[in-house]
Amino acid sequence: MAKRVLLxxxxxxxxGVDRAVITVEKALALYGxxxxxxxxxxxxxxxVATLEARGAIFVDETDEVPEGKTVVFSAHGVAPxxxxxxxxxxxxxxxxxxxxxxxxxNEVKRFAAEDAEILLIGHHGHEEVEGTAGEAIGQVRxxxxxxxARKVVPTPGKKLIWLSQTTLSVDETLDAVxxxxxxxxxxxxPPSDDICYATQNRQxxxxxxxxxxxxxxxxxxxxxxxxxxxxEVAKEYGTPNAxxxxxxxEAKEEWLVGVETIxxxxxxxxxxxxxxxxxxxxxxxxxxDVETITAMEESLLFSLPPELRKDMxxxxxx
Length: 318
Hints:
The protein is of the alpha/beta class. The protein has helices at 15-31, 45-53, 80-88, 99-113, 127-133, 145-151, 170-183, 197-209, 225-236, 272-283, 306-317; strands at residues 4-9, 35-38, 56-59, 70-73, 92-95, 117-121, 140-143, 160-164, 215-219, 241-245, 261-266, 290-294.
């Protein structure tokens, strides 16, 4: 039996995650520990634990940050009220919100100013959705899944627009949009696609691999929406079994029984070292033949938050 691994590309860190993690690292180097971070900077256990070891303190809300200290806002974005709360406590804020999430926030503000009702396709309780909806309280309705699209009853007479969380399944979002358009033909599309490029690219790569794989392993955390979606996409596109795991140590020997081809990928908040650990684990069990399946190349980079760049420049000038 020829055992092999099909390794997805692109995988792992996207530009927004890379920017957010580097922001915390640079803040620690510049201001010294501790640097407070509201929520998990990105949804990955290993990243959070590594930054904690270097002096980052993760909190749920700004009122847990001592007055006057530095706080970094996570890549998922925050509602305006969080900025207000931070200002009231005299906190120095560094906003590591992914620019692609900021784009959706700006769309909400724009359509809310036109008195439109915004149907936001996304998951209730997800930090990104809470931050986005917080831009226009009372004007955003969260559409969670296809059921949400079937049941929502918009305010009569309001102009309707749909937007989406950036880390959803592309297919599921399009299905929800199709339901909304069938029910409300007048609903407007956003000016551009909200699903982030990295989410789309990672899903396209696993779509190419899934029909060939007996098993797909996705490295990522359970609270990472885009990682969870990769497992779902793998199953939808033909792999019999797909599992999400944070670390190679969580992989199970029984998953490999009768398996010849394994697909491997990782969510957009996963450092490559965790994928390397999994490949090593698989190689030790006879899956040392690794072929990379490339869906597309990625080269996007985001500059660091302006408030951090300003302080770094000032420190260099001293």
